[in-house]
């Protein structure tokens, strides 16, 4: 029984690989389509947008080329012993 399952899997699961090779072979053999220049509407150009994009705002600009980052706040350190504070 196991032998037939192995043979079935080895044969049937190779079909998608063969189909892939067939599609690739067919695509390689295709000749590129030539554009018809006489019509003037080639169709390959993307139509321009009806509304131009507005420029991005220039301020406030943050990041590596913008204003430097704000300095870190001052740190407070407590000196002395805490045992003194409890008494």
Keywords:
87 residues; 3 helices; mainly alpha; single chain
Give an overview of the whole structure.
The radius of gyration is 36 Å and the shape is flat. It is built from 3 helices and no strands. The longest helix is centred in the N-terminal third of the chain and has 15 residues, at about 15-30. The model has no long low-confidence stretch (mean pLDDT about 75). Helix content is about 35%, strand content about 0%. It has helices spanning about 1-10, 15-30, 80-85. The chain has about 90 residues and is mainly alpha-helical.
Shape: flat
* Gyration radius, rounded: 36 Å
Low-confidence regions: none
Order of helices and strands: HHH
- Give the overall pLDDT as a whole number: 76
Report helical residue fraction.
25-40%
| Tally of strands | 0
Structural classification: mainly alpha
End-to-end CA span: 87 Å
Largest sheet: none
Question: Helical element count?
Answer: 3
How do the strands and helices of this protein lay out in sequence?
Elements lengths: L1 H11 L2 H15 L52 H5 L1
In short:
The chain has helices at residues 2-12, 15-29, 82-86. It has 87 residues and is mostly helical.
């Amino acid at each position: 029984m196991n032998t037939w399952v192995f043979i079935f899997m080895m044969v049937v699961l190779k079909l998608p690989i063969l189909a892939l090779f067939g599609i690739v072979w067919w695509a390689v053999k295709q000749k590129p389509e030539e554009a018809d220049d006489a019509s003037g509407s080639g169709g390959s150009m993307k139509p321009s947008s009806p509304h131009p994009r507005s420029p991005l705002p220039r301020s406030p600009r943050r990041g590596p080329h913008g204003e430097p980052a704000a300095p870190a706040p001052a740190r407070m350190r407590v000196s002395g012993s805490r045992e003194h504070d409890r008494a």
